[in-house]
## 1
Amino acid sequence: MRILVVEDDRDLAAQIARALDQAGFAVDLSHDGEEGEFLGATGGCAAAVLDLGLPKLPGIEVLRRWRGAGLAFPVLILTARGEWADKVAGFRAGADDYVLKPFRMEEVILRLSSLLRRAAGHATAELTAGALVYDTATGLVTLDGMAVRLTAFEARLLRFFMLHQGKVVSRTELSEQMYDRDADRDFRSLEVVIGRLRRKIGEGRIEMRRGEGYRLLPHDPV
Ligand code: CA
C-alpha cells in the first residue's frame, strides 16, 4: 500500500521512507506542506505520515484541507511539539494518531499498520482468509500453520489483498498501491508477481476476473 510522507527534515524523511519500504510499503515523499497537500489530494495514497511544522503550509492546515475535501485516509501526525494544545488541534483537524519526536521507526510502522488495518475494518493484527494468516505486526505469513516465504513485493501485494479480501480490486488500483508515484507502473510485471504469489499461497485463493481484476477469497477454496 502506498504511504505519503510529508516531512521537511530531509534526513528524517529519508529514514522514514526507508523503514516504510522495508516494512513493505510503497512511499511518496514530500518536503513541504503545499506539495504534500496536493499529493494527498490527488495521489491515491492509503495513509499519510504528516509533520506539523512544514514550510509553505503548516501540517494542521494540510490536514484541514484534506478532511475538508472529504479525504478519509488515516493520518499519523509527527511532531516535536508535545504541548496538549497542539495535540487537541491535530485531533480536531482529523488526525488519527500521534507520534512525538524523537521516536523509534518501529513505533511509526506499528501505528501506521494498525491504522490501515482498522481503516479496512479489521480489529486484530492477524488477518485471516481461511487457513491463510498474515500477521500485520510481524509480517509473517502462514498457510495451514506452515510459514510461507514471500519476497518483499509479494508480501506487499498480499497485505493489500488480505486487507481487501472478498472485494474485487482492479489492476489500476493494485498498481497504484504497489508502486511509488514516480515508478514505472508495469502491469505485465505486476501480473507475474501475482502469478508467483498465487502459486505460493495455493492456486485458487486469488481469483482472476477478466476485465475486472482480482479477488482474494475470504475463505479456503473449495
Ligand atoms: Ca518540520
Note: The chain has a mean pLDDT of 91.
## 2
Amino acid sequence: MANRRKLAAGNWKMNGTAAALSEVQALLAAHPAPGCDVLLCPPATLVHRMAEAAKGGALSVGGQDCHAATSGAHTGDIAADMLADAGASHVITGHSERRTDHGETDEMVRAKTQAAHDAGLIAVVCIGETLDQREAGETLAICAAQLTGSLPDTASAANTVVAYEPVWAIGTGKVPTLDQIGEVHGFLRAELEKRFGDNGTSMRLLYGGSVKAANAAEIFAVPDVDGALVGGASLKAADFSGIISALEKA
Ligand code: PEP
C-alpha cells in the first residue's frame, strides 16, 4: 500500500476579493502544522496575494485553470508559468465547470496539464460523469476515457493529483453513496496503475462534490480516497477547517 499524503484542496471558483484573505489567516491559525497537505485555489486575481499571505505557512496556493500555451495572443487567459510566477504551486485542470462553460475537451485538458507540468506546477486534474451518464450505466467508461484523455504521459505522483468529481454532485448537496465512490476510486486506481505503474499507485485520488465537515469523515474512510476537492465549503475557514480536521484523522 502506497504512502500517499492526504490532500485537502479548496476551489474558490469565482468568489473572493482581498477581504476574503482573512479566511487564509484564520485557516493558518487553526492549522499551523496540519497532518495533511492543504491547498487553496482562489480566483487568479488573488493568487499572488494569497501566496504572500500564506508564506511560511503550511498552505499551498493554486490557480483554477491555465492556458496550454506559454504566451501569445490569448486575451484573458493565463499561462501556467504566470501562475507559478505569482506564487502558485498547483493548478486545477479540467474542472467540469470549465468543460461545460468553455467547451474544454479531454485533449485541451491534457494540453493544459502538460503545460502545468512544464511550468513545474502540480496539476489537479478533474474528471467525472454527468447524471445522465451515471443513469445510463456509463460512469466507469466515461471516467476511464476522461482519465486516459486528460493525463499526458508526463503525469507522475509528484506532479499530478486526480480529482473524481461527479458533475451531478458539484454544488448540489447530492453525494454518491460510499459504495459508489469506492467503486470509482478503486477502478481509477487500477487504471492509473495499468498506465503509470508505481506512479499510479502513489498518485493521489481526491473525491469532490458537496463535501462538507459533516460528511467528510465517512468519505475519507473509503479506500483510495486520498482527500477532497472542495468548492463551497472551502470559502470559510471554519467550514474548511472541519474538513481538514476530518482528513487529519482519516
Ligand atoms: C468543486 O467545485 O470542485 C466542488 C466539488 O464544489 P462543491 O464542493 O461546492 O460541490
Note: The two ends are 15 Å apart (CA to CA).
## 3
Amino acid sequence: MTIVAALPKIAIKPVLKGNIARAAHPIGCEASVEEQIGFVKANGHYNGPKKAVILGASSSYGLASRISLAFGSNADTIGVSFERGITSPEQTGTAGWWNNIFFKKEAEKAGLLAKNFIGDAFSTEMKEQVVQYIKEEFGGKIDILVYSLASPKRIDPQTGTVYTSCIKSIGEEVRDFSINLEKQEIFEQVVEPATEKEIADTVKVMGGEDWELWIQALMEAGVLAEGFKTVLYSYLGPEITRPFYSGGTLGQAKAHAAQTSDRMNQMLKEKVNGESVICVSKAVTTKASAVIPILPVYASALYKVMIEKGLHETPIMHKHRFFKEMLYGDKREYDENGYLRPDSWELREDVQAEVKAIIDQVTPDNFRELTAVDVFTKEFMQLNGFLFDGVNYEEEIDLEALSQLRP
Ligand code: NAI
C-alpha cells in the first residue's frame, strides 16, 4: 500500500450499493468492538481455551468468536482475515480492517496476545506463516481453531485454479421478495437453479476442503494441544429458506463441510483426544448474509418474532452463548447427526409458525410494519460502524493518523 500525499480530515458517511457497504467508519467500528467486549464481560466467563486461531476473525461470527474467547475465556488469539486499510481519501478501509485494529488494542490492554494475519486463508503460505508463528511466538500449541470464512472465491493452492461460489437453488428456480437496503424497498428476486459446475465450485469454496487442509497442516506441525477442538459454522434453517439456502448450492457446501467434520472428528479423537464440531448457527445480519437472495425478508420477519419473544440475538450474543454454554459448558444441544444446535431458538415451532404467517402477508407496502426491517438495517449499518450512539458522525476524521495504525 503506497500513500503519497498526506491524507485529509474528512467526515465519513455511509455509502450503500444495494446490500453492499462501500464505506466503513473507523471510530464506529471501535465502538462496535467495545460494545461486544462489554457484552461478554457483562455475561460471564467460562473455563475454555487459552490459545485460539480464528479464520475469518475480522467480522460478524468470526469476530464475535474471537471476542468471546478472548474476553470470556482469557484466550490469546490469532486472527486471519482478508481486509484492506486506507488506500485513498475515498477508500477509507474496510470495517474488518478497523475491527482487527481495535480488537488488538483492547486485547493487549487486557494483557492478551492478539496477532492479526491479513491475507488469503486458503493459501499454503498463510498456513505456513500461522504454524511458524504458533511455534515461535504463541507458545507452541493451540486449543481451538474456529473456521468462520465466508468468501466468494478460492484459489486452489495445489492447482492455482480460481473457484467462484454462488448462492443458487438446485433443480428449480425460486422467486420471492428480498430487500434492497440502499433503497429500503422490497422487490421480487429470482434465484436461478445452479449448473453442476456451479454446485461443485461452491463446494470447493465453502465446503470442508480448506478446513481439512488447515487441520492437516497444524497436525503435521505438531501444534495441536491435547483436547484440541475445531468448529465450523453452518446453517440449516427452516423449510421457508430451504429452496435457496440449505437445499441450494450453499447447503451442498455445508453438507460437504459436515462430512469433513465427521472424518476429522475421528482423527482428532484418536490423535489428540480432540473433536471436530459443526455448530449450526442462527441467521444473523452480516456482510455475507445481506447478499443471500431472499434471506433479508426472512431475517427481518424472524427478528420481529424473536424480539417479541425475547429471543433475538446478534452474532456476539449467539457465539458467546455457544462457547460458554455449549462448547465449553454443560448445555450442549445435539441433533440426530451429532451437530450442535444453538439455532434451536430460531427453529422453535412457535417462532417459525409466526414467521411464516408474516412472510405470507408481506407486500412492498406493508413490509416495514410487518417485519423488523428497521432492526436488520440498523444492524447492517452498525457492521460498518454507523448508527452508534456516542459517535459524532459529523466530526472530521484524521485519516493520516488512522493510516498509521496497523492491525
Ligand atoms: P462475514 O462476511 O461477516 O465474515 C467473513 C470473514 O471471512 C471475514 O473476516 C473476512 O475477512 C474473511 N475472509 C473471507 N475471505 C477470506 C480469505 N480468502 N482469506 C482470509 N479471510 C477471508 O461472514 P459471516 O456471515 O460471519 O460468516 C461466517 C461463517 O458463518 C460462514 O461460514 C457462514 O456460512 C456461517 N454462517 C453465517 C450465518 C449468517 O446468518 N451470517 C448463519 C450460519 C452460518
Note: The domain at 13-398 is CATH 3.40.50.720 (Rossmann fold).
